[in-house]
Design goal:
single chain, alpha/beta, 3-stranded parallel sheet, flat
Length: 140
């Protein structure tokens, strides 16, 4: 994906995949931020090398408890909570917090437009389906 911007964003919050897959981050944002959880997710030697030699200053900043609570509650209302990791929530909370600090809240929703209910069902191993990438042993 090519991103062509005439002006850099002032504050860019990035998750783990952003650091590992987007080396041109400094061309997108003036100030690059992340949370400590993202730094801790980088575990392989090659990934650590990429993170250590970033061509820009990385600001590690933690979101406030209030921002984490807001994102957690909002994601529960949208039905997304169960699919988010703690790191995802913290990255979104930092984004939310910095939006409040630098832009304000008048353009942000405090409630989702529509509540969703996500139902999880357990697949029976009695009648396994062919799912590419998964092995389901037959019961004997």
């Amino acid at each position: 994906m090519d991103i062509k911007m005439t002006e850099k964003v002032r504050h860019l919050i990035v998750d783990t995949s952003g650091f590992l897959n987007r080396p041109e981050l400094r061309e997108i944002g003036k100030n690059i931020y992340t949370v400590q959880n993202v730094v801790e997710e980088v575990t392989s030697k090659s990934q650590i090398r990429k993170l250590v030699v970033l061509p820009f200053d990385l600001h590690v900043k933690e979101p406030s408890d209030e921002s984490v609570k807001f994102i957690t509650e909002f994601s529960k209302k949208t039905g997304d909570y169960h699919s988010l990791s703690a790191t995802d929530i913290r990255v979104m909370a930092l984004t939310y917090q910095m939006e409040l600090e630098h832009i304000g809240s008048s353009h942000l929703r405090t409630e989702p437009h529509e509540n969703r209910t996500v139902n999880f069902t357990k697949q029976s191993t009695e009648s396994p389906r062919d799912i590419i990438g998964f092995y389901i042993p037959s019961k004997k």
